[in-house]
Amino acid sequence: MSRQFHNVKTMASLKENVVAVWSADLKQPHRITPDLLVPDGYIQLVFILSGSYKRRKLSANHDSFVLNQSVIIGIQDKVILSQNIGELKSIGLQFDPLQFYLLFGDLGVMARNTHKPISRSKQSELLKLNETISKAGSTLEALQVIETFFTNYQPKIKGCEPWHLTKNSLECIRNKKGSTSIEKIAKSINTNARTLYTHFNDFIGFGPEEMIEIIKTNSTYSEPSINESSSSLSIKNLFEDMKESEKG
Fold it and tell me: How far apart are CA 175 and CA 211, in angstroms?
C-alpha cells in the first residue's frame, strides 16, 4: 500500500463485500514522488471528500487526468502513477469484481480501464451513499457512513451458475499468481475456453487471458526477479518516468 494512503482495518460489516479499505488525509506535498499503482484485478470506489489527485499511465506524460469527484475505477491493465494535488481527503474501497457485480450490477464491467463518475452511475443506492459521504466532515465520519451503508445494503443480484464458474476461475488464477492457462482453468472446472471467455467478459469486462496477464504483472512486481529482464517493470525506466512526472 502506498506511503501516502493508509490501510484501514476492514470493519466486520464490510468483510463480506470489500477486499480492502484505504483513506487519505494529505496536506500539500513537498516534492513527494508519485504512487506506483500496479494492476491487481480489483475494482475500486474512490470517494473524494475534498481536493483532487492526478493519475496517468506509466510512461505516458501527455495522457494524465485529474480526479476531483468520486468515481468507480474499473479494473486496470496498465501501471498507473498517482499523485495528490494540494490537500486531499478521500476514501477508497477495493472490491473483488464478482462481488461488485452482485452489489452494483455491470457498473464494474462498463468501467474497465476507465474512471466512471459515481454521479453518472444511475445506481440509486450508490448515488445516495456518495451524497451522504460528500457531507461528511472528516474521513472518520465518512468511514462510519460507509459501514452503516454496507450493514444495511443487500446485493441486488444472486450468483448464477456462470457467475460461480467465473468466480472459481478467477480464484484459480489468483492462487496460481497468473502462472496458468485458459485451457488448464477450463479443464479444472469442466468447461471449455470459449464459455470461459464469454463469462469473464460478462461479469468482469476482461477476457481470462487478460486477467491472467494482470495477475501475473501484479505478482511479478510484488516478488521481483533478480533477473531484471524477466520483470515487466524496469527500475531504470521507472525512475526516469518519475523525474518526468515531477517536471509536469
Answer: 13
Show the beta-strand stretches assigned E in 162-239.
none
Read off the C-alpha cell for 55: 493519475
pTM recorded for the entire structure: 0.83
Distance CA(11)–CA(49), nearest Å, equals 20
Identify the residue whose cell numbers are 450493514.
151
Residue 37 sits at the vertex; the CA angle it makes with 51 and 240, to the nearest 5 degrees, is: 100
What one-character DSSP code corresponds to residue 51? Answer: E
139 C-beta neighbours (distance < 10 Å), count: 20
Distances in whole angstroms, Cα of residue 169 to Cα of each of 48, 56, 90, 107: 33, 30, 33, 21
In whole angstroms, give the CA distance from residue 63 to residue 239.
18
Joined together, the cell numbers standing for residue 119 give 454521479
8 A C-beta contact, residue 19 and residue 97:
no
Cell of residue 46, nine digits? 474512490
Whether the Cβ atoms of residue 72 and residue 107 lie closer than 8 Å to each other = yes
Q: In whole angstroms, how large is the CA radius of gyration of the chain?
A: 18
Amino acid type, 117: P
Q: Does CATH number 1.25.40.10 belong to domain 6-152?
A: no
pLDDT digits (tens, 9 = 90+) for 150-179: 888 888 899 999 999 999 999 999 999 999
Query: 56-98, pLDDT tens digit by residue?
Result: 887 666 677 888 999 999 999 988 888 888 888 899 999 999 9
Q: Where are the beta strands (DSSP E) in 110-187?
A: 115-117
